[in-house]
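Listing 4. Sequential folding, example run.
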Amino acid sequence: MQQQVAPPGVRPRPWWEDRDRILGFCLAIAVLIAYAPTYLKLIEGPWRTEQEGHGPLIILAASWLAWQRRDQLKAARFAPAPLSGWAILLVGLATMALTRSQDVTMIEVASQIPVICGCILLVAGWNVLRIFAFPLAFLVFSIPPPGWMMDAFTVPLKAMVSDWVAQLLYLFDYPVAQNGVMIMIGAYQLMVKDACAGMNSIFALSAIGLFYVYVFVHDSKIRGLILIASIIPITIAANFIRVLALVLIAYYFGVDAIEGIFHDLTGFALFGVALIMFFLLDAILIAGGALLGKLFGLNKTTPTKSDPASAAYAAQPGPRMSPQS
């Protein structure tokens, strides 16, 4: 139904008398209760790892995006779609129950998206679901990927980064050799670990990049596409810098210098470097767009304000004469 504002002098209906609000509130509580075991499993497992530690931030960001749409929600026309809502909701719940019994965490977490979509359709319909489409899609980044997918991308990334590091050091006459993910430099032999492949950084930076483009990049689709396409190359470049730094530190200061907490700190530094490179690229794109606009006259010009006399003259009917006439 269409939400209406009470006319002056009429007391608005309290929320506990609004059937749609009560139904929506009850469904939200039910979803939280249903997925409480799922989130407890994530807290005790994947969210404690370096690869999936960004999961809670993804959920907070999706919640913030949904909260920003509250004005659109107030103006939206409610048209519940019970048939579609029940179908999607039941499929989501069945998927959640089945995957929870089989301990398939990835699909269990993913099932919350159709469950939430079904609840929205039951209460408000497709118009409201379109309003929350991006926050719901953003929840995809909270889904922990399966091990086989991580291995399929991690192994070639580790080998590629190791090869690049060894080739660069060889060009600068370092005593280096490389065999797969093993780098031998001087008297030391180092193995590039999974964390140095950058898959966790790719997922986290992809989420941040997409969030940034959606919220802040409204003036240029080309700029947004370039930023999204740059996420994987930037992450690989940042991991290359990390591995190169670790190898050089091991060469000059010994292997003990890169073990323990220092290795973990380089992971945070890597993510910071990737973010700096991402925002630096955006600054370059903004400056380049402004420069091209000036060179080719693409900048929008704001109309100048005319004085009242000129405006009155322009409003008069009849032919116009130039001041020199």
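-- end of first protein; second protein begins --
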Amino acid sequence: MRKRQCAKLITQSLVLATIYVVALSTAHGQASSLLEKDAINRSATSAVSICEDAAAPSSLKNALRQVCLRKPAGTVDFTIQKTIIIGFVGGFVKHDDAKHPEVHFAACLRDRYPSRIDAEVFSNHDGQKALRQVLHLLDTDRDGALTAVEKEHARIIIYGHSWGASETVTLARELGRNGIPVLLTIQVDTIAKPKQKGSIIPSNVANAVNFYQPGGLLHGRSEILAADPARTKIIGNFRMTYENHPINCDNYPWLARTFDKPHHEIENDPRVWDQAASLIDSELSDPASSVTSLRTSEGRQVGPDNSN
């Protein structure tokens, strides 16, 4: 028993050390070149979508290439109920770090549904800030308190990678404590943060999906479970592997690519973002979609081609 506990503590220490080293590498990379920093800031704030940005890194364009190929929502946008979409980046990444596809994915969604969604990305350490923003957006009469009707009409989707995937579940749980339903959570290679449980989906979530990979020192939770299966549909736990299907990760620092590559390959995997976009499109384009109907439906089994 002692040996098992020691092994567990060593593994946890190595995981935290790796995250810290990768974070330092990312911070150093951002500060090492003023020109590079300026380019990142322009990419993060530019009105040009990554789908149309010829200067964007090929690794990022490839990560979202299938999302970019989706047809514009067009007039369908006017029939969509107002929806809040919250994304979380992993590690110690800043909310607007344009090296990460989570940031560009939100921008793609805003381009696709310009008038019917509020999509914003947060650092995984800013969960309370994200919660306050959601509560503010739901408070349509701006009286500082949510009515039962405002809560009932809430349409919220949350996604995240690594620690951001853990924060995805934490935010959903906080919303549940406030009596607010969540349509969908999307987790990509969940790494549990201290004092968080990223594998148990709270009962206020209608649908949840988990993408994970088993390689490398940092690898995601292989299974998520519903706290109440009668109220939450687990769409699937989808295993992704990259031994024979490498993904370009040139948008990340050298240390991340060398010591933690699989954890970032799934973050750059175009199939993952395409499936995420497909699920979000289904929620947004179906006027009949609601928490009640989703809880009682049989759900949709979706997943990437795992033949690799």
